[in-house]
Amino acid sequence: MSHQEKLTYYIAQFVDELARSGITDVVISPGSRSTPLALTFAEHSSIKHWVNLDERSAAFFALGMAKEQNRPVALVCTSGTATANYYPAIIEAYYSRVPLVVLTADRPHELRDVGAPQAIDQIKMYGDYVKWFHEMALPEKHESMLNYARSMASRAAATAYEGNPGPVQLNFPLREPLVPDFHLPDIWESPTKDVYFPHVSGIRTLDERQLDRVLTQLADRKQGLLVCGPQMDTGLRESIARLAKTWNIPILADPLSQIRTGPHSKELVIESYDSILKSSKVRSSLKPDFIIRFGAMPVSKPYRFFMEENPDILHIVVEAYEGYREPTLTNTHYIYSDPAQFCIQSADYSAGMEMDPDWTDKWKKLNQMVRRKWAEGEELTEGHAVSILNQVIKDQHLLFVGNSMPIRDVDTFFTAIDRDCVIAGNRGANGIDGTISSAAGAAAHGRKVTLLLGDLTFFHDLNGLHAVKQYGIDLTVIVINNNGGGIFSFLPQAKESSDHFEVLFGTPLDLDFQHAVTMYGGHYERITSLEHLKSSLNQAYNNGGLKVLEVQTNREENAEWHRKQWNEIEAYALEISGEN
Fold first, then answer.
1. What's the superkingdom here (predicted)?
2. Complete domains list, the chain, with CATH
3. Alpha carbon distance 489, 298 (integer Å)
């Protein structure tokens, strides 16, 4: 039996089992050693292949797609440093709990550690950032080896998705010749009609005794808060709104919590809590009796201060499976249960749990006050650009937000709306790398996506625009260009490192992005007013392709404007809180 025949059946069985296990998309970075995998994926009728030349961009493209589709996406690359370029996206996927099946081609064992070209140590190269690593056996056609190939594929897809989702890596040592023969008979034939390793996972819930023990701790506490941090499950909306109504308890809703958008009741959603908690005096006047948090730690730094200043309160974190996501290191009670089910159970078994109405009314008044404040003004500021986006974004759209200042402006200015859209971002490792690629991946299946990001983040991933051009992806991009790292103007470095601030932190680019947008076949507009932004967004949503809308601002003026608004909010908040 020839090597080519062994290779063909072995790889075909593996790829076919991935398809049976629910993999519908693969992102391929071209290369020689990965030829068997790339060609076999391209040949399979049930898996759509996407080609992305830049491995770093490819991995973030797959991550964005997996996040939007809520299912694993496969990645394929050749050996050597190509595999290393996947690393940033794999780290992000691990921390943000996004399922990826990473398939790295490798030199066979005899060509390792002997100076062969394009051969590096790929064994467990992603360390603890993958849920599972496996070095595949060399291709064979024995029945046991074909079953082995299927079992590893099935296990990889299931492991990536089960529990807290995340990336897995399978490393493929492959000998030449590398081209499969797709004329061979029955290369896709499976020994079973079902998935090789069928997986059934139940929802974790508390029994009545466990629930009673939790709620008993809360019985005499009448000034509580529900907090929802970054998470992608829109199914949590209705259940957390129901619990909030039953208890008459405020919900502090992070912009990535999916609680600020959708058809559920927003009566108790406090989306302006970041602005409210900016002042230490206001924070001290709003000390709660307890906090129950769902999702990851919120974006808001004032909320983190709020937690650190109140280490003695009862703090509960609900996780669907496992994990210890509490960076303030406060004494925390963990509940491992499906968050939506926990809310439903708590609402059903919580007679007498209603909060003090004055406590809840105070939060509602503060929230309404801040909403009115941010509605003022007609200038084209970074914050009001988000307010316009908040007004015009439509049902079923996805807003992908870059890190640094854009996510914080969305936290501040994107108020609760009834339109059923999703807000997403790469908040696992909070980096600026791969943001365009992630948004493009989220838009690849036809969903309308708006990307909001800063000029440094845009520059950092310009290669991501190639996939947008290549596949005709509909993507609207708003670039907030303050010519550098705007977030550093709010940090101590701006005052304490004044002699070196611009070079080390401000990092002005002085680039005309119109040329890059033109190179990638996109439409570019420089926005001059809020009305201009509104009309351009509406026009972009009615047309297809790549649209880049650039909003130019001044870093120093923006920081000063924000501080002025926060000072005014502090005065109003202290008055409402009775502290003046």
1. Bacteria
2. 3-173 (3.40.50.970), 208-372 (3.40.50.1220), 379-567 (3.40.50.970)
3. 22
